[in-house]
């Protein structure tokens, strides 16, 4: 069985707020390979820290799968975010306002992902902490 370079997200069973995933985000694609904070090179991390802070809203985040997407306030683009790049104690929910920096994704560095993501305004829904079991 061969794998395409970008895996389509056909469906996600659960998102962090336990709601059904809307059909609108079924077109999102995962970068391949997925670069995590742990596998990112020091030079790439340093470059990301030089980038300006961006703002956006969480479009979706699946704690079980370890990733999600942020909609950029500036461009409207959907930006991939990996679980290892979320700062703070709460699991993000759709609609949370966030600040982040953009980091280029290898091997061609044509696309970017969100890193150093901080939730700056929580939605009114109940948020779960990372260390909670449910």
What does the model show?
The protein has one domain: Nucleic acid-binding proteins (OB fold (Dihydrolipoamide Acetyltransferase, E2P)). The protein has one helix and seven strands, in the order ββαβββββ. The protein has one helix at 42-50, and strands spanning 7-8, 29-30, 54-62, 67-72, 78-82, 97-105, 111-121. It has a five-stranded mixed β-barrel. It has a two-stranded antiparallel sheet with strand order 1-2. It is globular. It has 134 residues and is mainly beta. One of its GO terms (cellular component) is cytoplasm. Keywords: Phosphoprotein. Residues 53-119 form the CSD domain. Pfam families: CSD.
CATH class: Mainly Beta
What is the CATH architecture assignment? Beta Barrel
The averaged pLDDT comes out at 76
Beta-strand portion reads 25-35%
Which residues form runs of ≥5 with pLDDT under 50?
Answer: 1-24
- Spatially, the strands of the biggest sheet line up as 3-4-5-7-6
Class per helix and strand makeup: mainly beta
Please state the overall shape, judged from the principal axes of the Cα atoms. globular
Main sheet record:
5 strands, mixed, barrel
- The CATH H-level superfamily is Nucleic acid-binding proteins
Query: Helix count?
Result: 1
* N- to C-terminal distance: 35 Å
Instruction: Please give the domain count.
Output: 1
- Helices and strands, in order, run as EEHEEEEE
CATH topology: OB fold (Dihydrolipoamide Acetyltransferase, E2P)
What's the alpha carbon Rg, rounded to whole Å? 14 Å
- Oligomeric composition of the shown chains: single chain
Number of beta strands: 7
Helix content: under 10%
Keywords: Phosphoprotein
Pfam families: CSD (PF00313)
Organism: Polyplax serrata
Protein name: CSD domain-containing protein
